[in-house]
Amino acid sequence: MTQALFAYLLMRRRLAGRLLLEIGWVRLALLVPMLLAVVGRAVVLAASSPGWQWAVPVSVALLVASAHRQRSDLRFLAISAPAYRWWLAVEYLLWVVPVAVVLALFQHWAAAGLTLLLAPGAAALPPVREALGTRHKSQSWFRSEAFEWVSGMRTGGWAWPVLLAGAGWQHASPLGPVLALAGWLLVVVACYGTPEPVTMVALGARSARQFLGRRLILGLGYAALTAAPFWWLLAVGPAGIGGAVAVAVAWLGLVGLIILTKYAFYPNATHIRTTQALVVGVALALPGNPVYPVLLLVATGGLIWQSQRRLRTVLGH
């Protein structure tokens, strides 16, 4: 069993290496430092704030569980290796060791232990399609035209009430709703990480501008509706109405950039996801930096131009 486990971990390392090669060294040189800065800042902030260290193991476990349930190789592993869940548990344990180390450095030993305990438990969860079933699907609250939200909320919609409850519990501090909005942003990003088939674009667009405008209207509309309770918690808290409006504008602007990024690199899913991660990383790591507004303006203009150019190519215009 030990040899099989090592063989599995070696295979996963090779797959990760191939993915990194596909992403390219330029993107990696930009993406890795940004993600490390954002994730590191979030973990350190939570670990250094009284009571918030307990949010780290829960958040990490939820992220691991979401990634696990969407894996495409679970059915193959179930057929070829009966002990595969133990392999996955070890893999997930290795993923979260750095987070547990940070918690331990702040002497949050119980939270560090809970992180190491909860994350491997995700291996016992069934894949998303198996849990939902293939014949009976729940009625969606979203229009079928907003297919990103329909499919995305079936897998990640459970996070909304959890995040809202956490934001309401900590609404006396602006940090609670802001962190909850950051978590909800990650769920929204996951909705726009998978490109739809080219036939859907061709059938749903008369022109690149018309198609892109419709995607932005639907995406920003549903994003605003789902984020409104978090903004309200900010408005009635210490941040006040002005702070809530500023956060809302910045948050919706990020969602718009995520949608534009999807079509700027359509239909390459790897490039879409890595560039979206880079956009979110820059947005969360550089607020307050004097170059941030200029960088944001250039990125917005570039993504608008590239997304329309890419869609024209796809549509044959």
Automatic annotation (TrEMBL):
Keyword Transmembrane helix: yes
Top-level taxonomic group: Bacteria
Transmembrane annotation, as ranges: 19-39, 45-65, 86-103, 175-195, 216-234, 240-265, 277-305
Keywords of the record: Membrane, Transmembrane, Transmembrane helix
Protein name listed in UniProt: Uncharacterized protein
